[in-house]
Amino acid sequence: MSLLKVKDLVSYIGLFTILQGVDVEIQQGEAIAILGRNGAGKTTFLRTLMGLVKTRSGSIELDGVSLVGTPTHKIAHMGIGYCPEDYGVFDSLSIEENLLLAKHKDDDATAERIEYVLELFPDLKLAYKRMARTLSGGQRQMLSVGRALVNENKLILIDEPSKGLAPVVIEKMALALKEISKKSTIVLVEQNFNMACAVTDRYYMIDEGRTVHNGQICDLIDDKELQQRHLGL
Amino acid sequence: MGNIVTLLFNGISEGCLIFLMASSLSVVLGLMGVVNFAHGTLFLWGGYVYAWIYNWTGNWPLSILAAVTVGFGLGILFEKIFISRVYGNMSAQIMVTLGLQIVFTELCRVFWGAQQITVARPSFLSGVSNFAGITIVHYRLFLIVVGVVVTVGGQLVLTKTRVGMIIRAGVQNSEMVDSLGINIKRYFTIVFAIAAALAGLGGALYSPLNGTLNSNMGAANQLLAFIVVVIGGMGSFIGSALGSLFLGIMVAVIGWVLPDISLVAPVLMMALVLIFKPKGLFGLAVRK
Description:
heterodimer, A: 233 residues, alpha/beta, Rossmann fold, six-stranded mixed beta sheet, 10 helices, 10 strands, 38% helix, 27% strand, globular, B: mainly alpha, ABC transporter involved in vitamin B12 uptake, BtuC, two-stranded antiparallel ribbon
């Protein structure tokens, strides 16, 4: 059974229908990329999975359980970690507080996972007690991703982790995400094609709110015509 | 010298009273993005419930408890039935909360009449002490103690507890708090009810200070609370405390030095802050 199965998903914001038929299927342990131009509906797709954007029709199933109509906080408890495009880091909290706020359980396993986050991102360990408002863009992204690892999540949704970061930081982030993908199932929304190639195995391409293509990421690397048509590369 | 110290003392005690209302108004605005024009009504109800129970039983703790409980209950009622339907819609919030203000002020008149009600201070807080030319009204000293306790307690809750973390995070990005698995709506209700209880406590403490109550006192004090929120900055608890002290002292001093402009001075102060520091002196980012 698929870990996540999305079928013919239509979602809307106010009067505007944004997703107009998205189909995605992910197996446990996979890392997949959601690709597409600006405004194609990639971010809305992740937000719809989290229940932050309303679903009009279609289905979303996590481990066979429907997420449609489920409140966002319950979706998080069902095992989805979310790293939004703007990091979603709380400036008025320290790094420690940002991580502790995310935990669902107060047990040894959670404490070990926080330790793992700090090993994965040593920058966070060094500045553990510092207020998040003092962090750089790269450190914020690390904190955002780290926070999604605090719980034993089945699925991690990451929205444009390379956005606004320096190339050297993007490289570090790609390595960290590759490491995370060994343990977790990842859905990565990304405009940076190189980052997507470095982290994921498969891709779904969204255009004008619809999935228009999917396949192995290694095949897409060679398909310049498809890249040009849907990604504008 | 004695007069100046007495004046400062009175100003600080007034500030502590304003703080009870302004801090809760500020947190509600900061966390929930709700402009609550019904906050003064909660203050009014706190005052009337206190006076009613106290005049009837003479039991001071019971009267305070009743005022706080009624404030808390009305807070839950307002949030669950009315406010929760207008999150994110400021125009609707203004209409709904103004409506609540009008209806519940009128209900106050229906229950307790339109005439002024008198209420005495409890005997153990009604004395006055003098030393070195300074007059200390015991009840005002008590108000300062309450203000300090609420400020320290509130700050400890905000900085040392998980609830405080959630509130601070929610002020910045409530959607993200929800995405972490925290039912932020439940916290909205709790925070709104606690804010309402604080307003009720403010009303209960104000009544014996003033000695009389009338149904206009809610709106008058609400204006001062809004001025404090603007001066102190939205969503900032400490900003509200400092803003309240500042306003309380300023009103007391100007009332003594230039009584003719004492009513307009707070509004002028607010205008200056809006012009030169629109986010307030200690403001946080407020939820859009």
